[in-house]
From TrEMBL:
Residues 7-135, 153-275 form the UspA domain. It comes from Natronoarchaeum mannanilyticum. This is UspA domain-containing protein. Pfam families: Usp. The lineage of its organism: Archaea, Methanobacteriati, Methanobacteriota, Stenosarchaea group, Halobacteria. It comes from the Archaea. Signal peptide: none annotated. Belongs to the universal stress protein A family. PANTHER family: STRESS RESPONSE PROTEIN NHAX, UNIVERSAL STRESS PROTEIN UP12.
Length: 280
């Protein structure tokens, strides 16, 4: 039986703890097939272990042991990693070395504390991730945050520009469907990069999801891609927004990749981001 591995990246903040200790979130990870979790925390390169009174690595290992107990009690096999370097680079490196199929990071989103490590790491991972990335949104502006939408994949908003990688993101429903009850499919039309009959293509996707007993609706929008996707998110309140990290156009301003970074930064709920294959 194939082992499905996930990276769970944490900076040991209250936001990360809320995501890791939420039983419903962990249950949804089991539903989509995850059975082995690699807990990863990164000591930034500019933090030195020799600083007076600062046993950073020891403190992180002790905190990870507590998280390990929570996840093992939930039925996962767990391995912990405390590493040093640039967070998103080390997280990607471990994901590749253990052949993970998912990276998870907790984020407060548009936190007023712009320099929070986990916030900047989520955005950097959105640009560079080598495996699908789940940004698990938690409350901001509170000392004891809770997960914003804990039923991770119950209601999915899928955004597409009909590029190859957007279709790769759609294929994630092949395993998400075990946890998905409702889906909204949205395409934002661009006069500079038109798509042939987008409504018919969305309807074709919807039929596939309906065959899996997922209640599905479609939305066709016009305007700025990120703004329109976020407007749909506000109106349908999905638990997770699903999209690819690369799009149709080579022009940066039209690249779905830039849209995905905006969604990761601004979405109210969780975001599931699917990159191109490792070989691309």
């Amino acid at each position: 039986m194939r082992t499905v591995r996930a990276i769970y990246a944490t900076d040991l903040s209250a936001a990360s703890e809320a995501a890791i200790e939420n039983e419903t979130c962990l249950d949804y990870l089991r539903r989509v097939g995850v059975d082995e979790i690699h807990l990863v925390t990164v000591v930034p390169s500019n933090v030195h272990s020799g600083m007076p009174g600062m046993d950073f690595e020891g403190r992180r290992r002790r905190a990870l042991e507590r998280y390990r107990d929570v996840m093992e009690d939930a039925g996962f096999e767990v391995e912990a990693h405390v590493v040093r370097g640039t967070p998103h680079r080390r997280i990607n490196g471990i994901a590749e070395s253990v052949r993970a199929e998912l990276t998870i990071v907790g984020s407060r989103g548009q936190s007023p504390l712009e320099n929070r490590v986990i916030g900047s790491t989520a955005r950097n991972l959105a640009r560079t991730t080598v495996v699908p990335l789940l940004v698990n949104r938690v409350e901001r502006a509170t000392d004891e945050p809770e997960v914003v939408r804990e039923h991770l994949f119950r209601r999915v908003l899928y955004a597409t520009d009909f590029s190859e990688n957007a279709e790769r993101a759609f294929e994630a429903f092949s395993y998400l469907r075990h946890a998905t009850e409702e889906a909204t499919l949205v395409h934002v039309e661009s006069p500079k990069d038109p798509v042939d009959d987008p409504e018919a293509q969305l309807s074709e996707f919807a039929e596939r999801l309906e065959d899996w007993d997922i209640d599905t609706r479609i939305e066709l929008r016009y305007g700025d891609a990120a703004d329109e996707i976020l407007d749909v998110e506000e109106s349908v309140t999905p638990t997770t927004t699903l999209l690819g990290s690369r799009g149709r156009s080579r022009l940066r301003r039209l690249l779905l990749g830039s849209v995905s970074e905006e969604i990761v930064a601004r979405a109210a709920g969780n975001v599931y981001l699917v990159p191109p294959p490792r070989t691309a």
